[in-house]
Amino acid sequence: MPTGYTPEHFDPLSTKRITNTICEMFERQPLVSMNTEISRFSGSGLYALYYRGSTVDLYKPLVGYQIPVYVGQGASSNSATGKNASATDPVWNRLRNHRTSIMDGGLPIEEFRFRALLMPDVHANLGEDGLRRGYQPVWNSVLTGFGSNEQGSTTRQSKKSKWDTVHEGRKRTHGGIKHDLDALTARASKHILWQIDSYASMPWPHPGLTPEIDPTLLFADAAKNGSTPVAAQDC
Description:
Number of strands: 5
Number of helices: 7
Distance between the termini: 70 Å
Helix content: 25-40%
Largest sheet: 5 strands, mixed
Strand order of the largest sheet: 3-2-4-1-5
Structural class: alpha+beta
Order of helices and strands: HEEEHEHHHHEH
């Protein structure tokens, strides 16, 4: 007599399963302070920025969660042409530029952290897509324009980016049309509350408290021991 039971289907190499594995592994990486210049390292991969402070009211609700404000990747090749990137340190280069943008935008750099995981471009694509779809980081989805480069001469008439409207200070050229600051801030605040409400529904398990690394302490400890910190080697 039929029981109505159907065995579960399992594909260990499905795109969804690989994506979730990458996101889980990514979130197990330490959070690194951005207060000082980031030591140079080579390689392509995935990275994210996090707020861990107390002075920026808009982002304070994110403290204590593995919710990034921005997710990106440094690729080893140009996705449009397939040619290898000219730089051998695309993740480090992106993080260095982002650090400058955060400071130029008037935000306290000592209250931001980054997390990174080096991997092939194909896997970084999956991880970035998973994190963006799952968390919808506020600088990727609401206050857009943070990761964009300075506009060229043919696009300088476009409006000021949403990120630059809320965090004004970067030397960017743009047209005269502006976004509504109060409306943008309210939308970002509402979005962050939605992120927190949706936090438990991510398809990968969140790790417990991950360690934080302060490069200045690494150097201080190394000076006492007469050694060179790993983060500073081969720079």
